[in-house]
């Protein structure tokens, strides 16, 4: 039995080489592999040209990326979350910043109204824009809905709503802009009755450099809403611009002309007064004998 078993076991082993022989004949397809290799050869020859083109485009892309990085750093954009359960300030330091409920996003907002990947804040050459990715509850900029996959430009101190989460987009003041400063915006908020002066004072004291700006302190701590700050910023900026024009900063405005006329008239009155006194002294000196 052991020998029969050995014979039985030996048959498959002997059959394998026999079966392999017919299989080896189709392996004559090896010559067919040569044309495939030959076909691949031209691709290798073409590779240097493609690589050179890629290097040239890469250099241009690198220059554009450097310009964008410098502009982004100068802008120093931030997104301030104003929701009671998710308050915080997030710096936008890249060309694309994804916002959503999942942790894989650059800015993670774990609110039920936020979609997994809700929106992207992306660089648009001269500033940032926000793109909604078909989120369930949408994205609004200044209460205007953002159509899915269409960019909406963001400007400084703009109210943005992601689902039911209010946010404020802010950037640093840029050269040549006549925007209101934090003090003017605060006064506007107080005058509107949206906050008290005591709330403002406490928030400013508490700010103490903990946030990047007073706006981030006010909205991030719930002193006022993102919509209130955005409206106050616009109103105060408008007043600041009008004040600059009235003060003569508008290139010879009506306020500047009035000031010049008053100054000339005052000088003329002073001159005439002195001249009159002098003439009277020479004509009737006895009047000056005291």
Model description:
With 290 residues, the protein is α+β, with helices and mostly antiparallel strands. It contains seven helices and eleven strands. The strands form two sheets. The protein has a six-stranded antiparallel β-sheet. A hairpin with a 6-residue loop joins β1 (78-81) and β2 (88-91). The longest helix has 46 residues, at 30-75. The termini are far apart.
Percent range of helical residues: 40-55%
Number of extended strands: 11
Order of helices and strands: HHEEEEEEEEEEEHHHHH
Shape type: elongated
Biggest sheet overview: 6 strands, antiparallel
**Radius of gyration from the CA trace?**
38 Å
Keyword list:
290 residues, alpha+beta, Tumour Suppressor Smad4, 3 domains, 11 strands, 15% strand
Topology, please?
Blueprint: H1 2-24, H2 30-75, E1 78-81, E2 88-91, E3 96-100, E4 107-108, E5 119-123, E6 128-132, E7 139-141, E8 144-145, E9 151-153, E10 158-162, E11 165-170, H3 182-192, H4 197-207, H5 214-220, H6 226-249, H7 254-283
Parallel strand pairs: 3-4
Antiparallel strand pairs: 1-2, 1-11, 3-5, 5-6, 6-9, 7-8, 7-10, 10-11
TL;DR?
With 290 residues, this protein is α+β, with helices and mostly antiparallel strands. The chain has 7 helices and 11 strands.
């Amino acid at each position: 039995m052991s020998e029969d078993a050995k014979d039985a076991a030996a048959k498959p082993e002997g059959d394998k080489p026999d079966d392999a022989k017919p299989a080896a004949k189709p392996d004559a397809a090896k010559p067919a592999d040569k044309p495939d290799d030959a076909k691949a050869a031209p691709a290798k020859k073409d590779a240097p040209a493609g690589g050179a083109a890629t290097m040239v485009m890469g250099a241009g892309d690198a220059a554009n990326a450097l310009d964008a990085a410098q502009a982004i750093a100068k802008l120093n954009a931030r997104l301030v979350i104003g929701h009671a359960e998710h308050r915080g300030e997030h710096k936008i330091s890249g060309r694309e910043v994804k916002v959503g409920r999942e942790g894989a996003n650059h800015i993670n907002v774990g609110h039920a109204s936020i979609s997994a990947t809700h929106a992207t804040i992306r660089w648009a050459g001269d500033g940032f824009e926000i793109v909604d990715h078909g989120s369930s509850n949408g994205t609004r900029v200044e209460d205007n809905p953002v159509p899915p996959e269409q960019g909406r430009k963001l400007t400084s101190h703009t109210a943005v709503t992601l689902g039911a989460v209010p946010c404020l987009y802010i950037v640093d003041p840029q050269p040549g802009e006549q925007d209101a400063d934090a003090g003017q915006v605060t006064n506007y908020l107080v005058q509107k009755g949206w906050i008290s002066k005591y709330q403002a004072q406490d928030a400013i004291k508490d700010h103490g450099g903990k946030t990047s700006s007073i706006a981030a302190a006010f909205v991030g701590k719930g002193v006022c809403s993102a919509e209130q700050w955005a409206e106050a910023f616009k109103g105060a900026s408008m007043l600041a611009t009008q004040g600059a024009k009235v003060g003569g900063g508008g290139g010879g405005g009506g306020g500047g002309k009035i000031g010049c006329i008053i100054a000339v008239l005052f000088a003329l009155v002073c001159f005439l007064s002195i001249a009159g006194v002098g003439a009277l002294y020479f004509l009737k000196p006895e009047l000056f004998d005291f």
